[in-house]
Structures are given as structure tokens and as C-alpha cells.
Design a protein that fits this description.
Largest sheet: none
Radius of gyration: 20 Å
Shape: elongated
Distance between the termini: 53 Å
Number of helices: 7
Structural class: mainly alpha
Strand content: under 5%
């Protein structure tokens, strides 16, 4: 809710046309471990964070509530939304596995990107950016 209120979701997580063009190269860079420290999220990061925040988190909450017999009095239609309690349990388990995978990949990426820089940015807000590619003008 805070991301919606402070426009973080719209400014930083909503994919743009440029992101669509750069999506395949971004996947290729990540697979080759060419990690760039930038101010903005890459297309792959936008997709991952947006999917976690706006799909997986709401799904795990709703499926968890639909498995609870106590919620029948308040939201009797909720288990039916997922095809019953057993289906909600299955979806809940799948979402849990996806969130665990996201967490594991997130930790691995932090280690590959340089844990000191990452921890410093978490604690102080200061983040070392990758140098921008500059043209070699020494032989001009």
C-alpha cells in the first residue's frame, strides 16, 4: 500500500516500452553474470519485484485466509474462489515455493553483486554505481 501511495510502484516498477525492448538482453546479461549497479531497476528486476508485490503476496494471503475455517463466517465465497480448500492449499504451497525461490535468488544476486556494497546501501542509503561506459578518446 505504501508503494502505491508514494508512487514507487508506478515510477519504479511499472515496465515501459524501453523495458520491453531491453528484456531479452537483460536476461542474457543476468545469465552471463554481467551485473550493473544502477539507480533504476532493470526490466527483469521490475518483473520480479512487481510479481512478488502484486501477485505472490496477495495470493499467499488470500489462499491462507481461504484455508482457515474461521474465515467462512466472514468470507464464505473465498474458498470457492480457489476451487475449495484443497486447491487453495495447493496454490498456497506453490506460491510459498516461488517466494522461497525468489528469496534464494535474491540472496545469491546480492552475493554476486558485492555484499559490502549491498549492505552499505541497506544501512546507509549510499550505493556505489557501476561506472558509465565512456568512449575512448585517447587516440583521437
Amino acid at each position: 500500500l505504501a508503494s502505491l501511495r508514494n508512487r514507487h510502484a508506478r515510477k519504479d516498477l511499472l515496465p515501459t516500452r524501453k523495458d520491453a525492448r531491453n528484456f531479452i538482453p537483460d536476461i542474457r546479461d543476468h545469465l552471463h553474470l554481467k551485473l550493473v549497479h544502477a539507480v533504476r531497476y532493470s526490466p527483469l528486476q521490475k518483473l520480479a519485484y512487481g510479481g512478488v508485490l502484486f501477485i505472490l503476496f496477495p495470493l499467499i494471503i488470500l489462499t491462507g485466509l481461504s484455508m482457515s475455517p474461521g474465515m467462512n463466517a466472514v468470507l464464505p465465497w473465498l474458498p470457492d474462489l480457489f476451487g475449495g480448500r484443497q486447491s487453495a492449499r495447493t496454490v498456497h504451497f506453490i506460491v510459498m515455493a516461488l517466494l522461497t525461490g525468489f528469496f534464494a535468488v535474491h540472496i545469491i544476486m546480492i552475493l554476486l553483486a558485492g555484499p559490502i556494497n549491498e549492505l552499505r546501501s541497506i544501512i546507509t542509503g549510499r550505493y556505489r554505481l557501476s561506472p558509465s561506459p565512456q568512449k575512448d578518446t585517447s587516440h583521437v
